[in-house]
Amino acid sequence: MSLPDCITLEELNPGYPIYVIRHAAATARVAVNGAHVMEWTPTGQTQPVLYMSPDAVLQNGKPIRGGIPLCWPWFGPHVSDPAMPAHGIARILPWELLRADELGSQVAMLFRLQSNDETRAFWPHDFTCHLGISFGAKLEVSLMTQNTSPSAMVITEALHTYLSVGDISKVTVSGLNGARFLDTVGTPTMREGEEADITFDREVDRQYVSPSGVVVDDPTWGRKLTVNKLGSGTTVVWNPWIEKSKRLADLPDEAYHGFLCVEAANAGESAVRISPGSQHVIVTTVTVA
Ligand code: TA6
Q1: I want to staple 130 with a disulfide (CB 3.0 to 4.6 A). Which of 122, 123, 144, 160 is the partner?
Q2: Cβ contacts of residue 103 below 8 Å, gap of 6+?
Q3: Average pLDDT score over residue span 278-283
Q4: pTM for the whole thing?
């Protein structure tokens, strides 16, 4: 298919294609592996908005530590089979670019993943997924699931967005005040909402039951990142802190200082049932002020 002049198809490593977007409004990169948004930097920002680990593994079939991993058709560990890949299969399979357009102040791309024998070995359903991405002053990512099976399917999912910050210990996250959450640090425990904004002085791994987006206030870099969402009943907030960072081979030990994840998700009680022939969409947007 033809690409607009602002998009080139390049190889980061031999056999590892990525799309590079160089537009007046933003620069961005998307890997074919997982239709993975690796970078988005709106013009005028001196720091990338999405965090990317310098130790990220860039190999087909492997998840990328940073950007926006697609967690689908399950979020977290597989419900019953520990041999299955964490966070499902969408982020470790190649997606097909269906079209790419420059629309004035933004660039739009549409990717597709369809069920086949390989996916059915992981998940016994037929589906067609589309991923719509819009790059400009705002980033918008939409993951659409169509159930092409003769039976209903239940999915959990997340747009697992890694955000770059100047110093996590000075970051506050507002928008989830009062929302109850599943705390998955240690024994998973459902906790009542807290009135205060979220702050970080230890590992935080929480699945908030909320349709709301958040504002990430980063005083170190003097910017606020707003993450909004549609079709999502869970907002996941994660920072690995010291010990988990050390356990993650594709993340430098000190990297936790410079990022957090804010994920539009459907997990736990927000799992989504899609009847035969129906479809569901989850959307996240990111803006910078
Ligand atoms: O979204 C938070 C989380 O579920 C954490 O528990 C942590 O495991 C993170 O995702 C990263 O998962 P990954 O499989 O990409 O290492």
Answers
A1: 144
A2: none
A3: 98
A4: 0.98
Encoded tokens for 121: 């070995």
Cα–Cα distance measured from residue 48 to residue 75, given in angstroms and rounded to the nearest whole number = 26
**C-alpha of residue 2 to centroid of ligand 1, in Å:** 36
Q: If you take atom 6 of ligand 1, which residue's CA is the nearest one?
A: 205
| Tens-place pLDDT, residues 198-219 | 999 999 999 999 999 999 999 9
The tokens for 59 are: 């190999």
Task: Name the burial class of residue 118, with classes exposed (0-12), middle (13-18) and buried (19+) by CB atoms within 10 angstroms of its CB.
Answer: exposed
Q: How far is the CA of 199 from the centre of ligand 1 (A)?
A: 19
Ligand 1 cavity residues, CB under 6 Å: 63, 69, 76, 86-87, 160, 205, 236, 238, 261, 263
**Assigned token pair, 26:** 């933003």
- Taking only Cα atoms into account, the Rg of the chain, rounded to an integer number of angstroms, comes to 18
Ligand 1 centroid to Cα of residue 55, in Å, is: 16
* DSSP helix/strand/coil, 42: strand
Q: Residue 93: in which H helix or E strand, if any?
A: none
Q: What pLDDT, on the 0 to 100 scale, is given for residue 144?
A: 98
24 and 104 in contact (C-beta within 8 Å)?
Answer: no
The CA dihedral of 174, 213, 134, 165, to the nearest 10 degrees, is 20
What per-residue confidence (pLDDT) applies to 24?
A: 97
Cβ–Cβ under 8 Å, residues 75 and 87:
yes
| Ligand 1 nearest atom to the CA of residue 63, by list position | 15
Burial class (CB in 10 A: 0-12, 13-18, 19+), 218: buried
What tokens does 139 get?
Answer: 């980033």
68 Cα to the center of ligand 1, angstroms: 12
Instruction: Report the atom number in ligand 1 closest to the C-alpha of 86.
Output: 14
73 strand-pairing partners: none
